[in-house]
Amino acid sequence: MGAPPPLCWMLTAINASEPLQTANKNPPHGRMPHSLILCGGDMDELLKEGRRLAAEWLCREEGRPCMRCRACRNALSGRHVDVTLVNEGPGETIKVASVRALRQSMLLSPFDGEGKAALVAYAQNLNTASQNALLTLLEDPPPSTRLLLLCQQIGALLPTVRSRCAVLRLPAAPEAAPSSEHMEQAERYAAALASDWDRAALALSWEKLSRDELAALLGAVLAVLRRQVDAAQEPAWYLHKMDTIIECIGALRQNASVGSVCGILMC
After folding, report:
1. What contacts 134, CB < 8 A, 6 or more positions away?
2. Residues of the chain whose pLDDT is less than 70?
3. Strand order, beta sheet including 83-86
């Protein structure tokens, strides 16, 4: 399959119609935003993506995250000594004491590598005092650290917190199961990913679809790839393809033209 191509991931501003920032999906060490709000989807999806981003930050191999090295495996499984998780549960307030403990943890030097990462699950449950305490980390972050706020209700975060973070939105889950026709085309596209000609021909045939129709179809493609990645010998390659699909769905929701999105899918 070869090395995955460099991709982009969109960091969008709250209530904005244009991208706030665009960066490499696999940026050079140090390019990932220090503070990131990860929103959209359920908490299991947010935790999975948050751990993947932590692996990307801590991985020492080329093509980060490689998904194979010890740092990646430990970050993805939640066992990395330099990844701190604050998870009080869905119905519990995250109090100041938890934020202070997190801040102290982030001030310590890394135990295994050159960086540290912290994930705050259910960040919408940070109370006002906790969010104000978090501002210290956002305004004066310790070197080589990254902070990921996993949030299902981003409006619950104070403007002072939101303004100091980049925002990455996961695509919402489809409201209904993909149709059999969509699944058939999704299976064909997934099978054609390794063939430039077949992939381009199939994507070209989708240019007559509406934005909603194409978004639904790409949701089916994403479902197929998520099913395949668990058994893949080269999971990083599949994850990069999934990133492209997620990016295209986001572009369609930002009113990108069907033709421009199909052009990305052809590449």
Report:
1. 99, 126, 161
2. 1-31, 171-178
3. 83-86, 116-120, 145-151, 35-39, 166-169
CB atoms within 10 A of CB 259: 10
End-to-end alpha carbon distance in the chain: 14
The predicted structure's pLDDT at residue 171: 67
Domain 8-169 sits in CATH at: 3.40.50.300
Question: What is the number of alpha carbons within 13 Å of residue 55 lying toward its C-beta?
Answer: 26
Give dist(CA 225, CA 125) in Å, integer: 32
Domain residue spans in the chain?
A: 8-169, 180-266
pLDDT at residue 172, as a whole number = 57
With 0-12 CB in 10 A as exposed, 13-18 as middle and 19+ as buried, what is 181?
Answer: exposed
